């Protein structure tokens, strides 16, 4: 075997083991008995020991030094493998194992603290996770910015200074739009009782309409919705509130976007270094365009209105226009995942600034709740009323995902660019969505972006799909146009 063939065979087995680790994480958050958490912690640590040893195997380094790519896909595989090898070689095996061991325990502590509104019980676990991630970031950065080093895991090639500059450009227009909307009349909300079984039945229909392949996936319930897996086993979760069906329906659609990306990658790339989404920002572009530009459009919500009447009978809003307005209401609120399109990125900006300060050691975990509450009041104009609406609402920090949050906003930016290009290429897009048929949109996304996996770096992936380099302009224009019309601004 050539050096290239040896490297690829090694990578394939490593990725298969990583998928098993991911399945254990899915199990923990869906069906694992609560009493198994301590044992699962040890299982995850043991598996991480094996994975870290494979990812830092000196033989892999030798193969990568000698390997010659046979084609474009092979060159991309070597690019991704070399980047990962250089990163992993800087992380001590002890640290990788300890992170894997503590993560299930910290997540379990977060779930209990969130349920009990008890920040104090979670803080020791949060501090442990921050300490470990700081150490990891410092090891990878090798004297550079540890937060940027962690961000590289989720959005390669995009530093935090660049993100901060983009956010500084976006914030004034988002705040101005929000203030104008909140000064206008607010449309009525959808009210009523919506049984869980009917919500899940409708969410499954919506997933099917957006191309989710249930022969290679499934929907389960979780505290925090997520997507897991790649290739032929891609699972999603959702959550249900019987007084708020949009929580379930649009959480499902959001996760379908993630899952469709993974299911759509060319099967020739399966279990290879390019056989999954290239970055979390690009991944988020798929979930956000499925959920918002497509799922919350006037055309598709017209279909949802009829489908909900079939499931729940007469609704509290009288017609499709009122339903569209209810789906897209801009109101005060605390929860990022339930935020409207206008205010969503403001929630991300808050988290980005706080977590960067934590990793850079400019903020201590013991001061995080006060910092969060102070910043939220300044940004949104009203006070956090309880921890589950503030510092405890997101799972991310409990599992150490520092550097992940900014990719949500970047994904919105990418989605804005993709939607602009999609509309130009599919003149009858809205007619199909009005019948509940999203195939034209999902086929366009699969052909332009999803099937390529990690063939190209993140920005190049979006540029190739859109035909132009991404920036925040299309997203802001979309938001101002949509909500300006809705609120008659």
From TrEMBL:
GO molecular function: carboxypeptidase activity
Domain of life of the organism encoding this protein: Bacteria
Keywords in alphabetical order: Carboxypeptidase, Hydrolase, Metal-binding, Metalloprotease, Protease
The keyword Metal-binding is annotated on this UniProt entry: yes
InterPro entries per record: Peptidase_M32_Taq
EC number: 3.4.17.19
Enzymatic reactions: Release of a C-terminal amino acid with broad specificity, except for -Pro
Key word Lyase present: no
Function: Broad specificity carboxypetidase that releases amino acids sequentially from the C-terminus, including neutral, aromatic, polar and basic residues.
Stated family: Belongs to the peptidase M32 family.
Stated name of the protein: Metal-dependent carboxypeptidase
Taxonomy of the source species: Bacteria, Pseudomonadati, Pseudomonadota, Alphaproteobacteria, Rhodobacterales
